[in-house]
């Protein structure tokens, strides 16, 4: 299994490389898992808007997740630090609302540790 650790902003060239790598690997039938950490958490913001001439990386991840039943876990701490939250964490931390794009989910770093342990290769973007 290959783990793609997404740590760069969805507006970066690295983010485009990551989604393309995931697509190619999945199309070849490889087992892939992903984890969004640091600025990669911005990808899960459902309020992020893109102009028509710019690739919508979040939409691409959502479509890939649906097609290949791919989980889209995001580090909860780095997401919250960047203003991204689900309803449960919004309530817990007294925040005004939620903005997590489904099917992204907020998870702890223990999830990343398990994914690393289960992976043969880790690619960071």
Tell me about this structure.
The chain has 125 residues and is α/β, with parallel strands linked by helices. The protein is built from 5 helices and 5 strands, in the order βαβαβααβαβ. The strands form 2 sheets. It has a 3-stranded parallel beta sheet with strand order 2-1-5, with helices on both faces. The protein is globular.
Give a short summary of the structure.
The protein is α/β, with parallel strands linked by helices and 125 residues long. It is 39% helix and 18% strand.
Please specify the SSE layout and strand pairing.
Blueprint: E1 2-6, H1 13-27, E2 32-36, H2 57-68, E3 72-75, H3 76-81, H4 87-92, E4 104-107, H5 109-118, E5 121-124
Parallel strand pairs: 1-2, 1-5, 3-4
Order of secondary-structure elements: EHEHEHHEHE
Mean pLDDT: 96
Question: Largest beta sheet, briefly?
Answer: 3 strands, parallel
Shape: globular
End-to-end separation: 17 Å
Number of discrete helical segments: 5
Number of strands: 5
Name the strands of the widest sheet in spatial order. Answer: 2-1-5
Question: Roughly how many Å is the radius of gyration?
Answer: 14 Å
> Which stretches are low in confidence, meaning pLDDT under 50 for 5 or more residues running?
none
Keywords:
three-stranded parallel sheet, single chain, 5 helices, two-stranded parallel ribbon, 39% helix, 125 residues, alpha/beta
């Amino acid at each position: 299994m290959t783990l793609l650790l997404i740590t760069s902003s969805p507006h970066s060239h690295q983010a485009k490389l990551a989604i393309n790598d995931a697509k190619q690997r999945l199309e070849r039938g490889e087992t892939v898992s992903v984890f969004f950490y640091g600025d990669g958490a911005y990808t899960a913001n459902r309020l992020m808007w893109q102009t028509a001439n710019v690739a919508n990386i979040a939409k691409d991840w959502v479509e890939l997740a649906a097609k290949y039943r791919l989980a889209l876990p995001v580090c909860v701490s780095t997401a919250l630090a960047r203003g991204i939250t689900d309803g449960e964490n919004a309530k817990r931390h007294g925040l005004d609302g939620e903005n997590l794009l489904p099917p992204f989910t907020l998870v702890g770093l223990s999830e990343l540790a398990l994914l690393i342990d289960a992976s043969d290769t880790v690619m960071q973007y």
